[in-house]
Write a structure and sequence with these properties.
It contains three helices and two strands, in the order H-E-E-H-H. By secondary structure, the protein is mainly alpha-helical.
Length: 126
């Protein structure tokens, strides 16, 4: 008896999760379509222009990080290429991590490490 109850609950959970994912995709498709009409197909950070098949590389970034805040004028959105969008969210993680470690007095390695940071200096010495 208990197994059949768990099975029903698992089916209900799976159905609910699938429904929530569909709703999220519909919401995203709606605000992406709207943002693509409002803004030129240019990344708001690196200023790279997109057209044709490359348009799929443009994402809608929510400035306040609230995906439910979608004003029709697009004031909470900016179009970012997938790379700049990734960087934007990594930067937020880095900022939070820096604040956390500073308050704890811990010195941890930075996520912002660049293996090519000394490249300019090396090129000058050639």
């Amino acid at each position: 008896m208990k197994d059949s109850t768990n099975h029903v609950n698992a089916e209900q959970r799976d159905r609910l999760v699938a429904e929530m994912r569909r709703e999220q995709q519909d919401r995203q498709a709606g605000y992406r379509e709207q943002a693509m009409k409002l803004f030129p197909p240019v990344c708001g950070r690196c200023a790279r222009e997109f057209e044709g098949k490359k348009l799929r590389e443009l994402t809608v970034h929510h400035k306040d990080h609230n995906h439910d805040n979608n004003p029709p004028d697009g004031s909470n959105w900016e179009l970012l290429c997938i790379y700049c969008h990734d960087h934007e969210h990594t930067r937020d993680v880095q900022d939070a991590r820096s604040q956390e470690t500073a308050s704890q007095g811990v010195n941890r390695p930075s996520l912002g490490h660049s293996p090519f940071a000394a490249l300019a200096r090396l090129k000058q010495s050639e």
